[in-house]
Structures are given as C-alpha cells and as structure tokens.
C-alpha cells in the first residue's frame, strides 16, 4: 500500500486513521484489505458518525442545551433507535 498517497487524500476536516480501520477489518477476519476498501469504509464511518452526532444534537437541543451533548442524550438516542428497530422487525418493514 502507498500510505503517502493515502495520507495526502486523508487530509480533511476529520477522520479515522486508515491504519486503525485496516486493523478493525483484519480483526473481523479480513486477511487483506484493498486501498479502495479502506477509503470506502472510512467514508461510511464518517457518514454514520455524522448521523449519530446530528441525532444526539437533536436530543440535546430538545432538552434545551445547544452546546452540550450529555451521556443521557446518547442513551436516549440508543433507546429510541432500539425501539425503532424492534418496530421495523415486528411490522416486517424494510429499513431505508
């Protein structure tokens, strides 16, 4: 792998270490990880984290806090998502 090229491409506002992503994938059983797979997985991680942050911010704003996301906001978010997932399964609804 050409880590120099990846590091130049990686210089964005934030992100995950490509080395750490590769280690996660290897721990999950991958023997080899293609460079494109790393970059794609990184984009998916960032997208998922952005969605979680937006949702946690929504709960914090609803509680009257604009600048602080508390543990309770995260717990409420997880609980609501868990209930939503159960409803999707019980009603045989296809998730988006």
Task: Fill in the keyword field for this structure.
disordered N terminus, 0% strand, 96 residues
And the CATH topology?
Histone, subunit A
Extract low-pLDDT stretches.
1-12
CATH homologous superfamily heading: Histone, subunit A
The string of secondary-structure elements, in order, is: HHHH
Q: How helix-rich are the residues, as a percent range? A: 55-70%
Arithmetic mean pLDDT: 77
Quick one: biggest sheet? Answer: none
Number of domains: 1
Cα(first) to Cα(last) distance is: 35 Å
Q: What structural category characterises the helix and strand content? A: mainly alpha
How are the secondary structure elements laid out?
Blueprint: H1 3-10, H2 18-27, H3 35-62, H4 71-90
Overview of this structure, please?
With 96 residues, the chain is mostly helical. It has one domain (15-90): Histone, subunit A (Orthogonal Bundle). Helices cover 69% and strands 0% of the residues. Helix 3 (35-62) crosses helix 4. It is extended and about 45 Å long. Residues 1-12 have low confidence and may be disordered.
């Amino acid at each position: 792998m050409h880590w120099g090229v990846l590091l130049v491409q990686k210089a964005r506002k934030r992100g995950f270490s490509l080395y750490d992503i590769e280690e996660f994938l290897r721990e999950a059983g991958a023997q080899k990880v293609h460079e494109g797979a790393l970059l794609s997985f990184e984009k998916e991680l960032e997208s998922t984290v952005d969605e979680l942050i937006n949702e946690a911010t929504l709960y914090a704003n609803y509680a009257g806090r604009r600048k602080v996301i508390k543990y309770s906001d995260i717990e409420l978010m997880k609980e609501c998502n868990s209930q939503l997932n159960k409803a999707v399964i019980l009603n045989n609804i296809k998730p988006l």
